[in-house]
């Protein structure tokens, strides 16, 4: 949860870039963390549920119109994310990775795990993903997402 991430960042005095002491940078992180619940998380999880979990439970594929609708909802918030949060910066809060970037990418990996490559036609988003992966380490990133990336194989 967001609350535990903020607690851990404060308790263990993590490097400043994760949750910046600079008020403007911290406000950007906080703004994203507040926005993402019903947007990136909400729409990404909805696509994952529709495309992976509901078919597992019902034994039926999702209705195409339902899948199309949830995909379009996700595409709308992805555009908002690129325009409002990424803009032309390397990371959400500026030139360094923060908790906002980490949370964002984790949430975006759910639709990827459902077989929807949302980075494919979004070069700005793909470049941001590459920078986040490099910042945390590619091996750690792969280990952390191994389960979700294999979910569609259930």
UniProtKB/TrEMBL annotation:
It is an enzyme of class 2 (transferase). GO terms for molecular function: glutathione transferase activity. Its main location: cytoplasm. Pfam families: GST_C (PF00043). It is found in: Cytoplasm. Its EC number is 2.5.1.18. Transmembrane segments: none annotated. PROSITE patterns: GST_CTER. It comes from the Eukaryota. Keywords: Cytoplasm, Transferase. One of its GO terms (cellular component) is cytoplasm. It catalyses: RX + glutathione = an S-substituted glutathione + a halide anion + H(+). GO terms for biological process: glutathione metabolic process. Residues 22-154 form the GST C-terminal domain. Belongs to the GST superfamily. Theta family. Homodimer. PANTHER family: GLUTATHIONE S-TRANSFERASE THETA-1, PTHR43917. This is glutathione transferase. The gene is Gstt1_1.
């Amino acid at each position: 949860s967001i609350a535990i991430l903020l607690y851990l960042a404060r308790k263990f005095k993590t490097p400043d870039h994760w949750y910046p002491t600079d008020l403007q940078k911290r406000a950007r992180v906080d703004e994203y963390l507040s926005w993402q619940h019903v947007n990136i998380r909400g729409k990404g999880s909805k696509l994952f549920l529709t495309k992976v979990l509901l078919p597992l439970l019902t034994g039926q594929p999702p209705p195409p119109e339902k899948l199309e609708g949830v995909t379009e909802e996700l595409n709308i918030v992805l555009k908002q994310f690129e325009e409002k949060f990424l803009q032309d910066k390397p990371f959400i809060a500026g030139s360094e990775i923060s908790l906002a970037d980490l949370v964002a990418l984790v949430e975006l990996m759910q639709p990827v795990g459902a077989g929807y490559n949302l980075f494919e036609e979004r070069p700005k988003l793909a470049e941001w993903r590459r920078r986040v992966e490099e910042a945390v380490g590619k091996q750690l990133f792969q280990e952390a997402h191994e389960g979700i990336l294999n979910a569609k194989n259930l």
